[in-house]
Amino acid sequence: MKLEPTIIYENMEVLVLNKPAGLVVHSDGRTEEATLADWILEHYPKLKDVGEPFYPLAPNTQQPATTAIPRPGIVHRLDRETSGVMIVAKTPTAFTYLKNEFREHRVKKEYLALIYGHIETESGVIDKPIGKSKQDFRLRDASSLAGGTIREAKTVWEMKARLIDALGHKYSLLYVRPETGRTHQIRAHMKSIGYPVACDSLYAPGRLCPAPLARHGLHASKLSLTLPNCEARVFEAKLPGDFLDALAGMEKI
Q: Which residues are catalytic?
C-alpha cells in the first residue's frame, strides 16, 4: 500500500500535513523508496526550489556528494516510524520565517508517547545533553558516554494514563513536549531514564510490542505556532488506527 500524507490545513504560504508512520521525510541518498518529499513534488511542483537541498556523504568518503537531494519546503522532520503533524513552507519567505521560528523555539510541539513501564510521578523534565552513541552510529545517547558534538536537550513530559495489557505488561501513555529539536530526542531521553518508547527497535530492541503496533509508539499530535501571516494556530493530528488498536487492548489502572 502506498503511504501518503493527508492535508490538515493549507493556505498560500504553508501546508500542514499528517504524516503516516513508515513514510520517510526525504531520501538519505542510499535508498530508492518513496518519500514525503516525492509526494510534495508530485502534488506541489512549484515547491521544487523552496528550501534547502540535502547533500549526503558520497559513498566510501566523508565528503558531500555533488548531487543534491531535494527537500521541498521542509523545515523540520519526523522519524520514519513517527506519525503526525508536519508543516511545510510553500514560499521562500515562509520557509525563512518558519526556520527561524523553529530555531528560536517558538514552535511548540506535543507528542503522545507509549512507553514501557509505569513512571511513579505525574510529570517531569529530562534535561540531558545528547550526542552520538559510541556503540551504534544510528543512535543518539543522553548519557555521559555520548560522543561527537554534544548538544543541550530538554524534554517535558506529563502522565496521561497508566496502562496494563491482558498479560500484565505495564505501559504508560505520556504527553511529551520537546523544548529543543535534537535527532531522536524523545527516544533517547526516555531511554535515559529507564522508560524507552514501546516497540522502538533501536532504543529497546527485543522488547515485547503490543499488537497491532509494529513501529515505535510515538505520534506528533499537536503543533502550535504563529503562521507567517501573524495568525496563531494550533494544528492537531488524531492517533492513527494502529496506535488506537494497541491502546484498546489495554486497561487503565
A: 79
- As a whole number of angstroms, the distance between CA 247 and CA 243 comes to 6
Per the rule left: phi > 0, alpha: psi between -120 and 50, beta: everything else, 28 is alpha
C-alpha cell at 28: 538519505
Q: What is the CATH number of the domain that holds 89?
A: 3.30.2350.10
Same domain membership, residue 192 and residue 123: yes
State the total domains in the chain.
Answer: 2
Q: Which amino acid is at 192?
A: S
| 20-29, 80-89, 218-227, 238-247: least confidently modelled range | 20-29
Report which of 142, 21, 35, 36 is spatially closest to residue 82, judged by C-alpha positions: 21
- The string of pLDDT tens digits covering residues 142-157 is 987 777 888 999 999 9
Q: Are residues 144 and 72 in the same domain?
A: no
Which structural domain range is residue 53 located in? 1-104
C-alpha dihedral sign at 173, 86, 243, 193: negative
Q: What is the mean pLDDT of residues 46-62?
A: 74
User: Residue 6 has which C-alpha cell?
Assistant: 493527508
